Amino acid sequence: MQTTPPELSQPPRRRFRSELAAFLRDVRWMRLSPRRPGRRGGTGLAADWQLQSRVTRLLAWALFLWSVNIFALGPLVLLAAGTGGAEHRINLDNLPWMQAILWAPIVEELLFRYGLRRPVHMLWMVPMGGAALLMGPGLWAGALVALGLALSVWHSRRPHPPSAHWRPCMRRYIRLYPVVFHLATLAFAGLHLANYSLNAMPWWLMPVLVLPQWLTGLALGWLRTRAGIVDAIVLHAIFNAGPVLLILLVMRGLAGG
């Protein structure tokens, strides 16, 4: 008879605390396994594209990330920007809210985190995702993303007889996974330096500007590894939506005043 894992029998608030504790424990030297207890659909591609977390759980993650970024990392970012003379590129009169809430979560997750559990798929998803990100939202960029996903489906459905080279390569990847995980997180954070006009800012201060994206990338990568890619995409969208909606509300209030 199946028994309910202890993590799933806890109240929602305690369950999130357990998950947060697991994140803080795992992220120091991230491993490819185990999956989160109670994961639906097994380990195939279809399960990877199922939402494994309740929206309330993802909202709790977003609240945690917003709190740390605002109260702990935000002041450091402001201090570094003021010291180095960096300026944020955000244009409040033309806020790219659709890009922040829909486009960026999908493309950035496919680029930086989709291949973490499917390393072969990195061969096409990373260059196609990178090209789509550089092109920006549009028909051709969307076609590239769709093509990358189609290749992933095709590759996952075709039979793969074990080869003499595959298992040693996979064992090597599993050993190196902590390094791959943290390099992907650093690359994700570094991408967001493009949000700033750096001016004459010294290079050693630049990492401070993207500390919030680094922490967020760690959480997204942990969730992608333990749950699935859809969980990471949805959390990314929720995380981006909070500041965007706040800015829109403030601007509407100022306009009304």
How many domain modules? 1
Radius of gyration: 20 Å
- The computed structural class is mainly alpha
What fraction of the residues are assigned to beta strands by DSSP?
A: under 5%
- The topology string of helices and strands comes to HHHEHHHHEHHH
- N-end to C-end Cα span: 63 Å
Q: How much helicity do the residues have?
A: 55-70%
How would you describe the shape? globular
Largest sheet: 2 strands, antiparallel
> In DSSP terms, counting alpha (H) and pi (I) runs of 4 or more, how many helices?
10
Q: How many beta-strand runs?
A: 2
- Order the strands across the largest sheet as they lie in space: 1-2
What is the mean predicted local confidence, pLDDT?
Answer: 88
Task: Tell me which oligomeric state these chains represent.
Answer: single chain
Low-confidence region ranges = 1-9
